Amino acid sequence: MLDGLDFEVPAGVSLGLLGRNGAGKSTLLSILSGAVKPDAGEVRTEGTISWPVGLRAAFHKDMTGVQNVRFVARVYGVDSDELVEFVHDFSELGDHFYMPFKTYSSGMRSRISFGTAMGIHFDTYLVDEVTAVGDASFKRKSRAVLRDRLARSSAIMVSHNMDELRASCDAGMVLAGGRARYFDDIDDAIEQHEWDMARS
């Protein structure tokens, strides 16, 4: 899927990942987070990096939402009560927050995963299509909290919403055929991606 990628993202730069479905965008986020090991080579990072925040939340299915959030707080060394309060308010899950994670829909999993990540300070947030989840009000809230975090952190973001990438990202990278092309300007990356899509 990905073949011989070699790139560097400057510190403080937010990067938009573009490519057709199956190009390896989500796989790359998993590799960057350390959740998946590359077959060869290495990933070198500075600062703290979130897990890939999106549809595949990797919380324990038999634990409740609140138990999962407390566990994450302990792993990352943050105040568990503060994180629980933030995620409970942000996710709007109500009583479901106290139910087993395995009972959650994919949208509910995304809400709690995104809320948990936004409740912890990371130098870089890995974001996978998460602001596509929920009704219009929740999407607005998600975009607002992400903008707030990006005022002091960077992101590597996957989204099919080009306006969202333009609003959140400085640079872009287009994945195609297992290879990557880096662009210093997100608009140039979007133009290349749209040209690639039009050719197929």
Automatic annotation (TrEMBL):
Signal peptide: none annotated. Keywords: ATP-binding, Nucleotide-binding, Transport. Residues 1-200 form the ABC transporter domain. InterPro entries: AAA+_ATPase, ABC_transporter-like_ATP-bd, ABC_transporter-like_CS, ABC_transpr_TagH-like, Bact_Polysacc_Export_ATP-bd, P-loop_NTPase. GO terms for cellular component: membrane. SUPFAM superfamilies: P-loop containing nucleoside triphosphate hydrolases. Pfam families: ABC_tran. The keyword Nucleotide-binding applies. It comes from the Bacteria. GO terms for molecular function: ABC-type transporter activity; ATP binding; ATP hydrolysis activity. SMART domains: AAA (SM00382). Belongs to the ABC transporter superfamily. This is Putative cell surface polysaccharide export ABC-2 transporter ATP-binding protein. It comes from Maritimibacter alkaliphilus HTCC2654.
